[in-house]
Design brief:
Layout (H helix, E strand, L loop, with lengths): L11 E5 L29 E6 L2 E5 L1 H5 L7 H16 L6 E5 L2 E8 L2 H17 L1 H6 L2 E8 L19 H12 L18 H13 L4 E7 L6 H21 L7 E5 L12 H7 L1 E7 L2
Parallel strand pairs: 5-6, 7-8
Antiparallel strand pairs: 1-2, 2-3, 4-5, 7-9
Helix pairs in contact: 2-3, 5-6
Organism: Henriciella pelagia
Subcellular location: Cell outer membrane
Keywords: Cell outer membrane, Membrane, Signal
Length: 285
């Protein structure tokens, strides 16, 4: 099963200056023996896209920020890695790349097969010369048949230039029904949360144009001052995890809210579990 790479069509962004508005100019044109059939058309100064033989007015931001075209050579290694893993028996597995993050996606028949496929796919990406050079993080987005979606599956929907709305939707999907786990009463992150935080890290790396707030929240048990301090320490710990895995510290803020923003006011075990949470909010709208 070959991964279908997206090839972007290149569009040239031109800045048309007064020098190009030469219609009626007194400057003599160089003599030529060629017969020209072109006509002189005055174009106002400004920014234009030139596509399919036509000039289309555009804004300065669009002219400067056009995404770079992706060549077949640049994406061929992704197809090769996908083919290699498929030939190993995981013909349902695919590799999606955005920025310097590779996400493994697909639906495994059972948990054991998922783990084997994740290991094989991760090794294939990082052992590929192009993968080793271009990928900083491999995210687990593999689902299990009849179970929940893969923890990082939502990252497959991000492109190299995501909007802040897309980034927020991705982080919300990653955290849906999940939470960062800590050791009881302290800020030590549980090993059970490694892949969850890897998925968050991947989203943050792809969404590096925006700032992400890490909000720490506790339940209402314990003293207010203790909960406020604990929530800040846990938010700081999550921030440090992301920084250690490649996210720029300047793109992250950590805020401890303590017990001040509960989702559920009931005094039950279920309510306490809902209120103990880590939230990620994208800023940059």
């Amino acid at each position: 099963m070959r991964h279908q790479a997206t090839i972007h069509k290149c569009a040239a962004a031109l800045i048309v200056s007064a020098m190009l508005g030469a219609c009626g100019s007194n400057t003599a044109a160089p003599e030529t023996n060629m017969v020209s059939t072109s006509a002189c058309v005055e174009i106002p100064d400004g920014y234009y896209l030139f596509t399919d033989g036509q000039f289309t007015p555009t804004s300065e931001d669009m002219a400067i920020d056009l995404p770079a075209p992706v060549s077949q050579i640049e994406v061929a290694w992704v197809d090769d890695v996908t083919d290699h893993v498929n030939e190993m028996g995981y013909d349902w597995l695919a590799v999606r790349v955005a920025g310097r993050v590779a996400t493994l996606v697909g639906t495994a028949p059972d948990e054991d097969t998922k783990e084997a496929a994740y290991s094989a796919g991760r090794n294939a990406v990082l052992s590929s010369p192009a993968g080793a050079q271009n990928i900083d993080l491999v995210v687990d987005g593999i689902s299990v048949q009849g179970g929940d979606s893969g923890v990082g599956a939502a990252l497959a929907g991000l492109n190299d230039r995501p909007t802040p709305e897309a980034c927020q939707a991705t982080l919300t999907a990653v955290m849906d029904g999940r939470n960062v786990e800590f050791e009881s009463g302290n800020s030590s992150i549980s090993e059970n949360s490694t892949r969850l935080l890897d998925a968050v890290t991947g989203a943050a790396l792809i969404c590096s144009a925006y700032t992400i707030e890490i909000g720490g929240h506790t339940d209402a048990r314990g003293a207010d001052s203790f909960n406020l301090r604990l929530s800040q320490e846990r938010a700081d710990a999550v921030k440090q995890y992301l920084v250690d895995h490649g996210v720029a510290e300047s793109k992250l803020t950590a805020v401890g809210y303590g017990e001040s923003r509960p989702l559920d006011y009931a005094q039950t075990t279920e309510a306490y579990a809902r209120n103990r949470r880590t939230e990620f909010t994208v800023h940059g709208y």
